[in-house]
Amino acid sequence: MVHKPKQRSSSPLITVVVPSYNQGKFLEQCLESIFKINLPIEVFVLDGGSSDNSLDVIKNYNDKITWWRSHKDDGQSAAINEGIARGNAPYVCWLNSDDFFYEGGLEAMYAQLVNHQEKAFAYGKCWLTSESGCRLSHYLTLPFSAYLLANYCFICQPGTLISRKAWESIGGLNESLNLAMDYDLWWRLYNQFGAPQFCRMDIAASRAHADTKTANSIDDHYSESTDVVRNHYGRVPIKWLIAKPIMKIVRAIEHKIYKNKALQ
């Protein structure tokens, strides 16, 4: 199913892409947060053929969404690339349908990129939230350092904004990656354009719940992440070997907690 596009804004400043699959219970909050952005935007929703209430939610926003479709696709990375390719705004981002923006955050990053046009992208702070959207803790976000990035992905994806020229120059997301495609993207942008702009504001929320890909694919996530580090940094810091068994235990406990809450 493909929705005919609404009339575009004559000069959108930001392309926002929402990849989604069976996240109807979160999608409305995601879209509401996008449409509170106080800048001209264009919004593309790429649904992977959801069987829940996602289409009902999407159709409620027909008058605001620039374009949407719902059918089986080649995965999240391909959907994001497709959505961004459909836009024409000078800055781009994507927001997974279980995440949401905080008011004023994207505007702050846009202002910083306009004032630092030599930067390929900007990133800011994010909160980790519960399934209901309550704040749990800040995602550990740090000033940029390649050494630190090799040890820990301190850039939280929903809190990022990217120059379209830079995005197109490197070819967007690597569609062969399913879990660490954002980590790979930060490295490729840095390697070609230098350090990004750090915005010290709360930009977005990354929602923790039992159905996230990260929660359900710990080994695969570590494998992809270490491959990314090896490819771009030349070696894998020992931290990854030490942290893996610890994080597997932590993730397993978190996953059990999320599942139990979902059943209550």
Automatic annotation (TrEMBL):
Keywords: Transferase. This is Glycosyltransferase. Residues 15-119 form the Glycosyltransferase 2-like domain. The keyword Acyltransferase does not apply. The keyword Transferase applies. It holds the Pfam family Glycos_transf_2. GO terms for molecular function: hexosyltransferase activity.
